[in-house]
Amino acid sequence: MSSIFSLEQYREKACKQLPKMVYDYYAGGASDEITLRNNDRAYDRLAIRYHVMQDVEDRSLSISIGGERIDCPILIAPTAFHRLASEQGELDTVRAAGNAGTVMILSTLATTAVEDVVAAASGPVWFQLYVYRDRQATRDLVRRAEAAGCSALVLTADAQVWSVRERDERNGFTLPEGISMQNLEASGKPTFPETEGSGLGAYVEQNFDRSLKWSDLDWLAGLTDLPVWIKGVVRGDDARRAAEHGADGVIVSNHGGRQLDTSPATITVLPEIVQALEGTGTEILMDGGIRRGTDVLKALALGADGVCIGRPILWGLAANGQAGVEDVLRILANELDVAMGLSGVTSVDDLTPDLIAPVAE
Ligand SMILES: Cc1cc2nc3c(=O)[nH]c(=O)nc-3n(C[C@H](O)[C@H](O)[C@H](O)COP(=O)(O)O)c2cc1C
Ligand SMILES: CCCCCCC(=O)C(=O)O
Questions:
Q1: Phi, psi of 331 (to 5 degrees)
Q2: 43 is in which domain, residue-wise?
Q3: Residue 280 located in a structural domain
């Protein structure tokens, strides 16, 4: 019987086990980490106005997303470098995703090749795309993701310019010998720069396309038959533009507080984005600071079709590999199930905005 009951306990365990450079990279945010903290805290400022006497004997957490039915509305956000947390890295994560009945979104910067990840999967894998200055390298990534069997592409739009990440600078973040960005081997862009301080900024500077604009979303949507999502949106007008430029889905995200510090907590901008996308058929996911089932419930009630979690997956992975990731997903899903039952709701579709109210001061 596990003595871990919460995602916070997984974070504490991972913190004890991981080298400081890795823990800080996973845990950290941009600059003063204000958005990082606000992502978490914003859920506490919302109360759940629950119903009673609703017969909640039979409950289901299943949802349809991107044309697929999955058991659990908690998806795995794309995060780089899983082999810094466990030897099997992304293979552990994708096996856990399959057993939990959810989607894994694989990072461009995975430390396992997309072909190997999909081969180990028993559920859907989506591919997160960073657009490289070298468009042929970007096309190659798309073709590899398609050929491997990924079922959607997720274009990350909030990292054209690298943020200031003081923890990584202080620690001189680098990739250890033997760990590399496996999806970029073919395009000859696998190397992590040797620099003073963190190599992350230098890599992004050299490789990511800073000129990314809305017409590039049309370009990507025209390049592939896969559904295209855009990740990193925090405004209604941008969400609407994304839909106009061919996005099938939008991920409301501020990159877990790792890019523009003092950008808004994602749960606070979700209603604006839901409103902007009304009637467009564009699906909505959101991430940032989700650590409790009640956080998930609030996001779903305010109009997200599902949520993603980033760091808690890495904590599970570091603490206990595949079993740790499965346990993180199990704990959060169980908390959501309890929160739904106690709110008088039996299915995700029945979570509605009237359940949520600002906490009275
Ligand atoms: C260590 C780490 C690496 C990340 N790498 C990527 C990435 O490669 N691509 C991407 O689009 N987002 C990346 N993100 C952002 C996550 O996809 C997600 O937006 C964020 O982690 C959600 O917040 P949470 O960690 O509070 O759940 C990363 C986040 C972390 C913590
Ligand atoms: C190799 C440099 C880029 C790493 C990007 C991973 C990421 O998005 C993050 O937030 O960290």
A1: -60, -45
A2: 7-343
A3: yes
Is 255 noted as a catalytic residue in this protein?
yes
CA–CA dist 260, 36 (Å, integer): 10
Instruction: With respect to residue 348, please indicate whether it lies within any of the assigned structural domains.
Output: no
Q: Is 153 contained in some domain?
A: yes
Residue 353 lies in a domain: no
Please name which ligand lies nearest the alpha carbon of 126: 1
> 329-339: string of b/e by CB count within 10 Å (b at 16+)?
bbbbbebbbeb
Q: How far is the CA of 131 from the centre of ligand 1 (A)?
A: 16
- DSSP class of residue 60 equals B
- What is the pTM (predicted TM-score) of this model? 0.98
Digit-coded pLDDT (tens) for 230-243: 999 999 999 999 99
Q: Characterize the bridge pairing of strands 283-287 and 63-65.
A: unpaired
Q: Tell me the best of 155, 258, 263, 287 to mutate to test the pocket of ligand 2, counting ligand atoms within 8 Å of each CB and taking the most.
A: 258
CATH (domain of 289): 3.20.20.70
- Residue closest by Cα to atom 10 of ligand 2: 258
List residues forming the annotated binding site for glyoxylate: 25, 165, 255
Domain count, the chain: 1
User: What's the CA-to-centroid distance between 244 and ligand 2, angstroms?
Assistant: 28
Note the pLDDT tens digit of each residue in 120-154: 999 999 999 999 999 999 999 999 999 999 999 99
Mean pLDDT of 268-296: 98
Q: Quick one: how far is CA 295 from the chain centroid?
A: 15
The residue with tokens 């999502």 is: 229
